[in-house]
Design brief:
The protein is mainly α and 331 residues long. It is 57% helix and 4% strand.
């Protein structure tokens, strides 16, 4: 009986929407009802019919009532809003993220980030960087305020290799390391600079053919050279945006450098590497090992961490320990 009452309570829980959120929703074929709350008795009445067009007069009345905080959707309909929300994460985060259950919010953030990242990795960084920047900044500020969302997002990451999936894994796992595995929580600006470095360190690989990126072995000398130059390519392509911090760009340039000087593209050693560069390098290596590719299964977390620990001349052991804390929580 209690379970039935709880289910009914969830079904009848409502989330208020703002005018900006209403504008994101389709007006001709909305798949669920909007509700108006009666301010005198707190009751909710459906004011639209699923699948039916909302006429102009009703649109105006709904818009005015949104401003008064009287228009709601059911919590159970939030999932149906996802197609309309993922392209407008900054608005959703600003207006109603506090009203969305955390599991649904985590999935929404990840889908929105993936869509936004896909546009700059697969289409044009010049055309889409501004929107990506707004999206990642808004998500970063929310995660900095509510780090527990990261524990929900990590299991949702796609372990099948692609530049976009790797970008998301780098960003979310790196964010968890920064907010959950260090004694001092970083300032929000430092945190967001780190997110940009983590998400975009491989953007320079976009110029390489897909068949080269899919290779694990037998790269030609020319292919090896081009891959080893991609940190420089990443910095060059991001420099055209004129909005990346020097901290982020430096870490991107350094994410394949190693403390013993064995890395690339410049072969610099520990004393010349930034902490964020070393962090990006460790996270990027872990993600690369644990992602599956055609003909190669993903490596188990334990094995990947053992390899990183064994290469103590290349990676900062403190960073690997922090990485272990967020990727092997039940180990």
């Amino acid at each position: 009986m209690n379970a039935m009452n709880d289910s009914k309570l969830i079904e009848e829980s409502f989330c208020s929407i703002t005018e900006a959120i209403f504008k994101l929703l389709p007006k001709n074929n909305l798949p669920f009802s909007l509700y108006r709350m009666n301010s005198s008795n707190g009751r909710f009445t459906p004011i639209t019919i699923p699948g039916k067009a909302i006429v102009s007069a009703d649109k105006q009345a709904i818009t005015e009532d949104c401003d008064r905080g009287l228009i709601f959707i059911k919590f159970t309909d939030i999932n149906s809003c996802r197609p309309y929300f993922i392209s407008h994460l900054p608005t959703v985060i600003c207006d109603i993220s506090h009203s969305i259950p955390e599991q649904e919010l985590a999935a929404l953030l990840l889908e929105g980030l993936k869509e936004s990242a896909d546009k700059i990795y697969s289409d044009s960084i010049k055309l889409h960087f501004s929107a990506f920047q707004d999206t990642l900044t808004s998500v970063g500020e929310l995660l900095h305020e509510n780090p527990e969302l990261l524990w929900l997002m990590i299991p949702m990451l796609d372990s099948n290799h692609s530049l976009v999936n790797k970008s998301l894994s780098n960003g979310i796992i790196g964010a968890a390391l920064l907010l959950h595995a260090r004694e001092v929580k970083p300032d929000v600006k430092i945190f967001i600079d780190a997110l940009f470095a983590l998400f975009l360190c491989d953007i320079g690989l976009c110029s390489l053919p897909e068949f080269v990126l899919g290779k694990e072995f037998c790269l030609s000398l020319d292919e090896q050279k081009r891959i080893r130059q991609h940190p420089i390519g990443s910095v060059e392509v991001l420099s055209i945006t004129s909005s990346m911090s020097k901290t982020s760009l430096r870490a991107i340039l350094e994410h394949h450098e190693r403390m013993d000087g064995s890395g690339y593209p410049r072969g610099v050693t520990n004393e010349n590497l930034s902490w964020l560069g070393k962090l990006c390098g460790a996270v990027d290596s872990y993600v690369a090992m644990t992602m599956g590719r055609p003909g190669k299964k993903s490596m188990p977390t334990v094995k990947a961490l053992k390899i990183l620990y064994s290469e103590s001349t290349q990676y900062d052991p403190n960073i690997i320990y922090a990485l272990e804390k967020v990727t092997y929580r039940d180990g």
